[in-house]
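Justification of resources, computational component.

The compute hours requested in this renewal are based largely on the per-chain cost of generating structure records like the one below. Each record pairs the submitted sequence with a full structure-token output. That output is archived, and it is also reused by downstream analysis tasks.
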Amino acid sequence: MHTKTMEGLAGASMNMKLLNTPFRVYKDAERRGDTAVMERAMGYVGEFADKAEDYQKKAEKGMEEDAKEAREKAKTEQENAIRKRKEEREELEKRIAESRNGDTDTVSISENGKAALDGKTDSVQTGADNGIPVEETADAIKMEPVTYTKTGEASKSESGINISVSV
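The structure output for this chain reads:
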């Protein structure tokens, strides 16, 4: 909340409370028939009412400034969001451009894989509508598992080793 708004609301509230005292004096003087006290009390009531009105105007100005600041803040947040989305879009476009370049990873099929694929019929390679189940097509290529070292060389495991662990 803006300072002017708080000051205006507090001042208007206080002057409205202070207005009650001279008004009570006015009513008491009216019952007694004392016109001089009545006039003086109404002067005080008028002063406090004018002060409360001034504070009310101050509060309204403060609320207008609050609204203006809120609009400006929303506008800057919107501009920041637009700029951020634009930067993200540019970054995405850069990534797409980089992926189109030759700097990307490629997949190559080894000679053993090519030989295994050449041994199959075209219908088996394409996933076949000839009624042969997928398990049979997978069994068509029987290769021993290969483990690769950190340097990228293939090292074949020995199939004759039996390992037993007793606990």
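Residues 3-101 form one domain. Strands lie at 146-148, 154-156.
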